[in-house]
Structures are given as C-alpha cells and as structure tokens.
Write a structure and sequence with these properties.
Elements: H1 2-49, H2 52-56, H3 59-68, H4 74-102, H5 107-117, H6 119-122, H7 130-133, H8 135-139, H9 144-166, H10 171-180, H11 183-197, H12 207-238, H13 241-255, H14 259-274, H15 277-304, H16 306-314, H17 321-347, H18 351-376, H19 378-402, H20 409-426, H21 432-448
Helix pairs in contact: 1-5, 1-9, 1-12, 1-13, 1-14, 3-4, 3-12, 3-14, 4-5, 5-10, 9-10, 9-11, 12-18, 12-19, 13-17, 14-15, 14-17, 15-17, 15-20, 16-17, 17-18, 17-19, 18-19, 20-21
C-alpha cells in the first residue's frame, strides 16, 4: 500500500494547497469585494463548473484503466485522449458562453463567465483539460510532478490576485489575472506529460471505443456536477446577489473538504480497477472506513462552530452564511461516502449503475431547488443539496449491495458514536480554538478504541 499512500499524499498535498489558497482568496475577496461582488465572482465559477464534466466526458478514468491494464500503446492512447479532451473542452467553453446569453444573465455577469470559461482549458482547479495531461502520471501513481506544478500555479494565482487587490482593481481584472496565472504551469505540464507517456505507434484502434466506454461515466459525472451546482443557479434567479455571496462562502468552505475522498479514491482507482474480484470487497471496505473516520468529526465539529466560522472568514457582514455552513457540512459528509461509491462503480466497469444513481440525484436536486429556494432562499439552497447527497448515499448503498459490495456499517456506527462523544466534550467550550484542540483529542481517543477491518490489501502494495 506504500505506493498508493505516497501518491495519495502528493495528490492530497496539491489539493490541500489548492484549497488553502482558495480559502485565503475567500478571506481576502469577501472582505474586499463585499457580498454582492463576491457573489458575482463566485457565480461565474459556479456556472462554469456545470460545463466541466462536459469537457472531461468521463474519458480520463477509461484512459487510466486501459493504460494500467496494458491495452495498446500508452503513448498512442494518451495522444488520442488529449485530442478528444481538447475538442470536448473547446465545445464546453462554447456551450457555456452561448448559455450565458441564452439565459439572459446580466451583462457584467456574462463578462465574468467569458473570462472564467478559459479556466476549463488551463486551470489547476477541479475538473479541467489538465486532467487529460495528468493521465500517464495518475496511471502509474507518479503524481509528484503534477502536484508540485499545481501548487506553483496556485501560488502564482494567489500572488496575482493580491497584487490586483493592492492596486484597487475591480472584480473583472481580479478574475482575469487569477485565470491567466495558470498558463505557465499548464504549458510545462503539457510538455512533461507527453514525455512521460512516450511516443505512440501507428493507429491500432478506434477512439470511438474509448468514447463508448466513457459515455455513461461522463454523463453520470455531468449529472453529479449538475446536482451539486443547480442550487446556486436557481438561487441566482430567485434570490438576491447578496444571498449568492453568503451561499458562496458557505459552499466554498465546506466543499473544500471534498479533496480528501477525491485524493484517496484517485490513488485507489488504478489498484481497484486491476484487482481480482475476490479482493475488491477488502479494498472498498478499507477505503470506506478511512473516509468515514474523517467525515464524522469534520461534520460534527463544523456544524457546532458554523456561526463563528462564517464571521471569521467573511467578517460580520457574512454572518448569515453560518446557517448555510451548518447544513452544507452534512452534504459534504455524505459526499465523502458517495465519492467512494462512484469511484468504485467506475473502477469495476459499472458505469451504468453510477449513471442511474446520478440521474436520480440530478432529478431530486432540481425538484428540491425549485421547491425550496423560491420560498426559503439561502436556507433552501443549502437544504436542497444536503437532502440530495443523503438520498444519493441511500441509493448507492442499495446498488452496491446488489453488486456484492457490502458497506461496513459497523464502522459507520462506531465512528458516529466517537463523533458524538467528541461533540459532547466541545459543545460548551467558549471559543473555536479550544473546541478544535479538545475535539481532536476526544475523537482520537474514542477512535483509538476501534478496530478497522484489515481484510483486503491493494494488489502489489505492501
């Protein structure tokens, strides 16, 4: 398991640096721009995120699996994947910009969307064309170089934004320098990725076979993104731009924690995809157990200190965001477990099951958004996402059970009990600093009494 842990550490380090940088930007920009302009800035990214899965199309896990399994020449497969990814990314940018005009967004918001759409090509955040360039590194668990480039890009972006703020620039300039600061690291990653993949031979297979396998994954990823972001889109039409700012700070802070399951499952994915059927249960159980161990205390502690967190990061003007943080952190906790399930579906070629769950979650999200947000605004947006994630978890449990993959509910119950012990210890403490210290100690002590099942090891990793 050493290679997986090392690779996970690099992915997690880069993602953590990304999220720390993002949180620093939230701290700076929410105070500098105010709720309204911060809402516009954030909405541009929310909207563009809807099109990120169209740009990726579910191709990268298929490419990783095929390269890992030794199907064809890695260089040839990688080159075709990059070509397909470039075409899909450009198409996604075109659709995003056209959609902004079709939906009648305000002129200032449309300009921000045009600027933000360039990030679908060069950004080191979230799912972008960069994922295609990382395929050979992900397949062979060599994410050190892409991780370092990502951290360098984030640092450049943070410095560029700080300079723009210091010079008193507006939200459009801040967004532009933030996006374009990714270009140098992106170009270097492109050069190194082709070198890592190696030269390809003459064409020996059709890229349409890749597209056919990737389609259900890409569609389910698009639906997953849709349910995650749809609330913010509905809030734009039925709420105020200030409520968008409050929702944005709560959403950004809570979803920043999703790097943890993503980093773990990105590293586990190659091993799970190539594992024998009799080893899959053990790998899945261990992954689920590790994510449950982390998700429970994060959710309980964040919910307990939600109001203080909102004021600390956004100032007193963002106090209304506290209620949204308290709800959205539970959406993130369920997302930890749903990420594990989705990655498992993709690894064992059950994209159809993934698609079924994602379709149900997408339909539920849009129904809840239109039912709750017009009446409850910010609160409705938070609850629509939390309920959708919880329902998705229930559906994933049923589908996984039918596929013979059992969830270790004993671990979930034990870590839940440990989390309640932690909450009882910190609930009446006077400040957030003491709550963190005592909470970590209390949960760690309770969790130390638990035994994590050890069945299953990652193939070839000790």
């Amino acid at each position: 398991m050493g290679n997986v842990l090392s690779n996970t550490a690099w992915i997690l380090s880069a993602s953590a640096f990304n999220k720390v940088s993002s949180i620093a930007l939230v701290f700076i920009l929410s105070r500098y721009l105010g709720a309204a302009d911060f809402g516009r800035f954030s909405f541009a990214f929310f909207y563009i995120t809807l099109f990120s899965s169209i740009a990726e199309m579910g191709l990268t896990p298929v490419l990783i699996r095929r390269i890992r399994a030794g199907e064809g020449q890695p260089g040839e497969m990688f080159a075709k994947g990059v070509f397909l990814g470039l075409c899909s990314s450009l198409a996604a940018i075109g659709l995003a910009v056209a959609g902004a005009f079709f939906l009648g967004f305000a002129e200032d918001v449309r300009l921000l969307i045009v600027i933000a759409s360039l990030g679908l090509l060069v950004s080191f955040r979230d799912v972008t064309f960069r994922w295609f360039l990382e395929v050979p590194f992900r397949a062979w668990l060599k994410m050190r170089v892409p991780a370092l480039l990502g951290m360098a890009s984030e640092l450049m972006g943070l410095v560029a934004v700080l300079a723009a703020v210091y010079l008193g620039k507006g939200v459009e300039v801040i967004l532009a320098v933030y996006v374009l600061s990714n270009v140098p690291a992106f170009m270097l990653l492109a050069l190194l990725s082709f070198r890592e993949a190696g030269a390809g031979r003459a064409v020996t297979f059709s890229p349409f076979s890749i597209l056919k396998e990737a389609f259900p994954i890409g569609l389910s990823n698009t639906l997953n993104t849709f349910y995650l972001i749809s609330g913010s889109i509905v809030l734009y039409f039925y709420g105020t731009i200030e409520s968008m700012g409050y929702f944005a700070i709560a959403f950004r802070l809570t979803t920043s924690l999703r790097i943890i399951p993503e980093a773990l499952m990105n590293s586990v994915f190659p091993a799970l995809a190539s594992a024998r059927e009799d080893l899959r249960q053990g790998i899945f159980s261990r992954s689920f157990g590790m994510l449950t161990l982390v998700a429970m205390p994060l959710a309980l502690a964040t919910a307990a200190a939600a109001d203080e967190i909102a004021v600390f990061f956004g100032g007193s003007d963002f106090a209304p965001a506290g209620g949204a943080i308290e709800v959205l952190i539970w959406a993130t906790a369920f997302a930890f477990l749903n990420t594990c399930a989705r990655s498992t579906f993709n690894a064992v070629s059950l994209g159809g099951s993934n698609l079924s769950v994602s379709s149900a979650m997408g339909a539920l999200s849009i129904a809840l958004s239109f039912a709750l947000i017009p009446a409850w605004g910010l609160t409705g947006a938070a609850w629509s996402l939390a309920i959708t994630e919880a329902a998705g978890f229930a559906l994933n449990v049923m589908v996984l059970s039918r596929q013979g993959l059992r969830l270790p509910f004993g671990l979930l119950a034990r870590y839940g009990a440990a989390g309640l012990c932690m909450l009882a210890c910190v609930l009446w403490l006077p400040n957030m600093f003491l709550q963190v210290l005592v909470g970590v100690a209390a949960y760690g002590g309770a969790a130390a009494l638990l035994v994590i099942p050890s069945e299953g090891t990652l193939p070839g990793m000790k």
